[in-house]
Design goal:
The protein starts with a strand and ends in a 12-residue tail after the last strand. The protein has helices at 86-96, 102-107, and strands at 3-13, 36-49, 52-53, 58-65, 74-81, 111-120, 122-125, 131-134, 138-144, 154-156, 165-177, 180-182, 186-195. It has one domain. The chain is built from 2 helices and 13 strands. Strands 1, 2, 3, 4, 5, 6, 7, 8, 9, 10, 11, 12 and 13 form a 13-stranded mixed beta sheet that branches. By secondary structure, the protein is mainly β.
């Protein structure tokens, strides 16, 4: 089976700005904690798994990384928007579980506990006031960091990343799902492309 999905995402986590997970560093939060808890919401604008059209599907990816990423033992949970059909939800679930190969297949080796897949209202707001919402679980907003030229600060060619280049900033709000509760500090956003033909190295599972 083959898949390609593309669109945009917004992610936030408990790490102090800037999150070190992208370079396989030990997570650090503002209180001195050494784990990364986060979530990322993805909007698929175009994509399919074989004959299943995935355009328009939104999903949330929750994580707990107890140490640097390649140490493994990740905890991961997924919420797929209730507006997706059963066939779409099944296809997205298989992709994220690594069953269809590609980058998620490469990352599956680091998952110590899969916390399950739920259905619920998932939404992502882009534009001047980026935000994500997973009904009953998570509501987060994002403010980009700006460089000396006034444009958003970006990270490029990171070891682990949902995108080859992504904007970074500060996040605020609250999140509690799958027993993973955190207050966000760091945030990031970008466009993404994931494919079963994609080489290892992307994405990172933070969210």
């Amino acid at each position: 089976m083959t898949y390609t999905i593309s669109g945009n995402y917004l992610a936030a986590c408990s790490c102090a700005v800037v999150c070190g997970c992208s370079v396989d560093a030990q997570p650090r939060d503002p209180q001195g904690g050494t784990e990364c808890r986060g979530t990322a919401v993805f909007h698929i604008s175009e994509g399919r798994l074989d004959d299943t059209n995935l355009a328009g599907v939104d999903f949330a990816f929750y994580n707990e990384f107890p140490s640097h990423l390649t140490a493994g033992d990740w905890k991961v949970g997924v919420v797929i928007d209730s507006g997706a059909s059963d066939a779409q939800a099944d296809a997205v679930g298989r992709i994220l579980a690594g069953e269809e190969g590609g980058p998620f297949g490469e990352l599956a080796q680091f998952i110590g506990e899969f916390l399950g897949t739920e259905r619920g209202e998932v939404s992502l707001t882009d534009g001047e006031n980026p935000a994500l919402d997973v009904a009953g679980h998570t509501r987060l907003t994002y403010d980009p960091l700006l460089g000396i030229d006034g444009n958003p600060t970006t990270v490029k060619n990171a070891m682990f990343g949902f995108s080859a280049e992504y904007g970074i900033g500060k996040a605020s709000g609250a999140s509690s799902a799958f027993g993973l509760t955190f207050e966000p500090t760091y945030g990031e956003k970008a466009d993404f492309v994931f494919s079963s033909e994609q080489e290892a190295g992307t994405p990172k599972g933070r969210v």
